[in-house]
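In this supplementary section we document a worked example of the pipeline. Step one takes a protein sequence of length 339 as its only input; no multiple sequence alignment statistics are reported here. Step two produces a three-dimensional model, which step three serialises into structure tokens for compact storage. The input and output of this example are shown verbatim.
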Amino acid sequence: MSERKGRSTVALGSVSASAYAAVGGKKEGEGPLGGRYDYIDADDYFGQSSFELAESAMQGIALQNVLEKRGIMPEDVSMLFGGDLLDQCIGTSFGTRDFGIPFFGIYGACSTVSEGLSLAALTVDSGASEISGVITSSHFCTAERQYRFPLEYGGQRTPSSQWTATASGALLIEKTGEPPFIRAVTVGKIVDRGITDANNMGAAMAPAAYSTVSAFFGDTGLRPDDFDAIVTGDLGNVGSRLFCELAEKGGLELRARHFDCGRMIYDQSAQDVHAGGSGCGCAASVLCGYFLPEIRAGRLKNILFAATGALLSPTSSQQGMSIPGVSHLAWISFEKGEI
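The serialised model returned by step three reads:
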């Protein structure tokens, strides 16, 4: 059963990710992790009449895929935690409505997958749920239309801007006795350092990532060298550099073990993505397509996964407000055990 560690961290029992699936678009399929996705669609419309419907279709594909991998039906899932970047999370509500699973809509911007993973693990560990699902997505075209400009505008992107991934990730959490195990979760705080540039979200999110990672180490007494990888998402080039610099100032050396989903998902020398990838689907698909399979195979033993979110809206940006950041963390391991 769960046990509180310090202010922000909860240690869990034998809770694991039993199945996971990653879906991507054409650009993601052309990236270095393209072969890791369960489904790649060459048409970013996913056979739909709009990009918003395409994002919902991605979620439906991801959720159906993960159910089939586990060999269960929608009615076997006790509850589903999901969200996306669109207003009122319509990507998720329309994408999952036909499955009939009891649903919690959540929003953590690009940190939504780690927020959902944390909540799902806590409900399963407590006995409130037998199987909890997690799903999220993003789509380059829907995000551009909502947060910046219509694609037809053709605005020039700044060097610090990131490319919103057209991708979805879904996973199931339950007590199976098989890896990957969710050993602990750390709930992040909202951190706002006054960044107002919506084209530099890495800088806005980096302090939140450092806050949560340092809280985990403070709560547990563990050290960075206890882990194979300390994974953030999606700080990109700018945010990753700032994250490591903040950690060094705080006495944590993370550079040798730091991986960022926004830097992994694309080939930055061949694909024009500027500072890297972003979006709810970026961290979710890299987690489900790469890191969880690596842990299940035993090639990675312990990772910290801390997806990051910039909690802005079109309204807040238009009014010149700063960009709060948040990051939630999960310790994911090949072995179960106590802290």
